[in-house]
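Before the break, one more example. Copy the sequence into your notebook; we will annotate it together after we see the structure.
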Amino acid sequence: MGCRVRTEKSDLLRVVAVEGEALVPDRRGRLPGRGAYLHPDLRCLDLAERRRAFPRALRLTGPLDASALRQWLGEQEAAVPGSGTAATGQEEGDIT
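Here is what the structure looks like once it is written out:
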């Protein structure tokens, strides 16, 4: 959704809106309601929010709170050594 790169469904994270206002990760793919798929990466989430992709994909109006989703993604990136900017402390494209 955010970066628009096609990949296997198993490599994506399903996201649903709970009570029509809060975005939460659906790791098992079993929560009720319409879902949207996203790479489990904070940069992809940022792009999706900037493009306002969640309300369109989930067919909802108004702003959606992505703080729980953002926190979950941050914890996942921090738990996996060597993944993303959380592990290295560097932005993409930084030269050392």
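The longest helix spans residues 67-79. The chain has a mean pLDDT of 86. Try to locate both features in your own notes.
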